[in-house]
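Progress note, sequence design subtask.
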């Protein structure tokens, strides 16, 4: 397995796990990985960034939906 394949597998696992801290740690690690080409490094980092952004959007939507369900008629149930 090539280094790029290993990195792709790690990014896949981090995306699947969906834990922001682990994705951020991997982003930093990839920034310092000189064994990858600039393009390959960027591609994998973008996958992580997109997942992080998507995760934040879903979290916000979930919180808003929860708030709406808890407040009916202006009162917290």
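Output:
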């Amino acid at each position: 397995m090539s280094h790029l394949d290993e990195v792709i597998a790690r990014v896949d696992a981090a995306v699947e796990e969906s834990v922001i801290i682990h994705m951020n740690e991997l982003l930093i690690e990839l920034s310092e990985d000189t064994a990858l080409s600039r393009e390959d490094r960027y591609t994998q980092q973008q996958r992580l960034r997109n997942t992080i952004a998507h995760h934040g959007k879903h979290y916000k939507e979930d919180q808003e939906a929860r708030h709406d369900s808890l407040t009916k008629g202006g009162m917290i149930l």
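The radius of gyration is 18 Å. Work on this subtask will continue into the next period as scheduled.
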